[in-house]
Design a protein that fits this description.
There is one protein chain. The chain is mainly α. Helix content is about 85%, strand content about 0%. The protein contains six helices and no strands.
């Protein structure tokens, strides 16, 4: 139960074990070997079309993750002056101590969430190896007996090589989103709490007085 609550408050990703990494590498190698040994000569045009579709889809996934990371980083940067303005309302000597304590906890939580979101966004746009087809690969493919088949294999091999890093980027951007969402809810709850606190304080005061009266009536 505690672990479930902790994971909801602070999302995390378990690092893969050495055995899982070896298994993942074996699967990728099996994928590359399967591509190398495949024969697309009968329907090479169809294979090339599907290979292009897969390659473009992986490119789009990668590009989308990088774009979202840039947007999230800009949003985090824009929130810095907003947080500075909110802090002046979060804590003051005249404020109710209970309200101030809850507000400070929520504010610090929002700061931690924003910091972690920024780190995940930076991890998304981190420079990494990327397999891309160039003029040389296309020229070499066209020198073979079946250019479309060779180009299909090169495209599929690039997809296999980029698969792990693209998945890493998508995972990082999802974690960025999760932490930003929690930061937003913390800040929203601070504003709602400050607006509704006078009503809540009045209700709590009435409940306390009623409880005291009932206890005094029940006592001998």
């Amino acid at each position: 139960m505690f672990k479930l609550i902790y994971e909801h408050l602070w999302p995390r990703i378990d690092r893969p074990s050495p055995q899982e990494l070896l298994k993942d590498e074996a699967l990728l190698e099996k994928m590359r070997e399967s591509v190398r040994q495949s024969a697309f000569s009968n329907r090479s045009s169809t294979a090339l079309e599907e290979a292009r579709r897969l390659f473009d889809a992986e490119q789009e996934r990668r590009r989308s993750a990088d774009t979202k990371a840039g947007i999230y980083l800009a949003a985090i940067t824009a929130l810095v002056p907003v947080l500075a303005a909110i802090w002046s309302r979060v804590w003051s000597a005249e404020m109710d101590m209970v309200l101030a304590g809850i507000s400070v906890v929520l504010f610090l939580s929002a700061l931690l969430y924003l910091l972690r979101a920024g780190l995940w966004a930076f991890s998304t746009i981190k420079v990494s190896a990327f397999s891309q087809l160039g003029p040389y690969e296309i020229a070499v493919s066209w020198k073979s007996k079946n250019p479309e088949e060779q180009l299909s294999k090169k495209l599929l091999n690039s997809v296999a090589c980029n698969f792990r890093d693209t998945n890493r980027k998508v995972t990082c951007i999802k974690m960025t989103h999760e932490f930003l969402l929690r930061a937003f809810f913390c800040l929203l709850f601070i504003m709602v709490l400050h607006v509704t606190w006078p009503i809540l304080a009045a209700l709590l005061s009435i409940i306390y007085k009623v409880a005291v009266i009932m206890l005094s009536m029940c006592s001998p």
